[in-house]
Amino acid sequence: MKDNYEKSRMAVDAVIFTIHEGKLKILLHEREKDPFKGKKELPGGLLQINETAEQTLTRKIKEIVGAQEIFFQQFYTFTDPKRDPRDRTVSIGFIALINSSRINDLSKWFDCNNIKDLAFDHKLIVDKAKEYLKSEINSIIVKQFMSEQFPLNKLQEAYEIIENVEYDNRNFRRQMITSGIVKETKKLEKSVSHRPAKFYKFKK
Amino acid sequence: MKDNYEKSRMAVDAVIFTIHEGKLKILLHEREKDPFKGKKELPGGLLQINETAEQTLTRKIKEIVGAQEIFFQQFYTFTDPKRDPRDRTVSIGFIALINSSRINDLSKWFDCNNIKDLAFDHKLIVDKAKEYLKSEINSIIVKQFMSEQFPLNKLQEAYEIIENVEYDNRNFRRQMITSGIVKETKKLEKSVSHRPAKFYKFKK
DNA sequence: GCAAAAGTGTTATTGGTACACCCATGC
DNA sequence: GCATGGGTGTACCAATAACACTTTTGC
Question: Is A94 helix (H, G, I), strand (E, B) or coil?
């Protein structure tokens, strides 16, 4: 019996997270063509000949945020045959993480807890990505959102935003320091109208 | 500029684990055709028209182990354009878990720590699957390898085999019971030439 | 001196780890 | 009675959780 299969277009879709203004935000573009013209969609694109999914994503990220290296990771592959109304397209979902200071135009970044009405199945992809990010959180992930040096309270804020919980400030600081994730530097915050924070950095 | 993409064949490959004779084993088939004729390979197959990857895998598992429902989960999608020498084939890697009592012929199941020289990139897929299984271990996963009712020492053995560690028997038992994962039954092992074990089962 | 955010210690509880012997059964 | 694997308790240490006030700065 002959297999009844067809070839498929292969795409990557990236849920690119950043932390800005106390919110976890993601990059969305507005579609200029049908289907779903005018609706927002995730950045992504088709795999070219001789590219792995990771290479496609690296190429796309260069187009979007410049030649910077950014952290990314597969989290799920979406295979519903009807997910693209034009032609069957399998999409490999990635999360990517970027520090907001490396973003020029923040106007296309949206609070990921207030997303609706996206093109294709992109709302589903965003929901799975949020869930994945939260479940996988660790210091390597949070590090992507932090500057080289940062006050401990900013680090706490990052954890709280991603996990949507609140931590006790004293316990949080003690844990970060005694577990050896961070170490303090000699630098202090400047020109703030309150007690200046000490800067910390991640240990290697 | 026109995109330089091509469509791709889409496949699933399943690393189906079971525990048997104190070892974590996986199912491998011998290839009857080139490429890689005579080498062992993972069970899997191409996505048919109108099938999701999960539906393809459900269909394949029926062919392999009968009409039983078994637990499975995506863990990584392999996109190297050269991974199949015939034609580009993207493969969605799944782990699947089955109790060895549901397997008729155990002769095609091999110790997953003693695997070499598989077809395609299947060794890589197996290695990633093992790593994933170990990192994701929890009671739902271990449950798939256990009978409805089981002695606690068998449960401990399952954890030890998957994680490749040893646990203290007293601490392990206390933890399983006090954390509410299992509850004891009234049943005892029969016809063993040592003290009979009490059977436990998973709480819901 | 007031507003704003940074920074700091102690206590109680919980969870984890280490450790060695007796028990029930079949033969 | 011996071989086999099943089953049990305690003490210590580490990690976590709860909790409120003082410090430093700019204006």
Answer: strand
Q: Taking the complete model, does pTM exceed 0.90, yes or no?
A: yes
Q: What is the pLDDT confidence band of residue B3, given thresholds at 50, 70 and 90?
A: low
* C-alpha B141: how far from chain center: 9
Predicted pLDDT at A2: 58
Residue B137 forms contact with A (CB below 8 Å)? no
CB contact under 8 A, B48 and A4: yes
B11 to chain A, closest Cα gap in Å: 10
Question: How many C-beta atoms lie closer than 10 Å to residue A77's C-beta?
Answer: 24
8 A C-beta contact, residue A96 and residue A26: no
As a rounded value in angstroms, the CA-to-C1' distance for A198 and D27 is: 22
Minimal-distance CA residue of chain A relative to B92: A77
Q: What structural domains and CATH numbers belong to chain A?
A: 2-136 (3.90.79.10), 140-202 (1.10.10.10)
Residue A66 pLDDT level (bands cut at 50, 70, 90): confident
Strand partners, B43: none
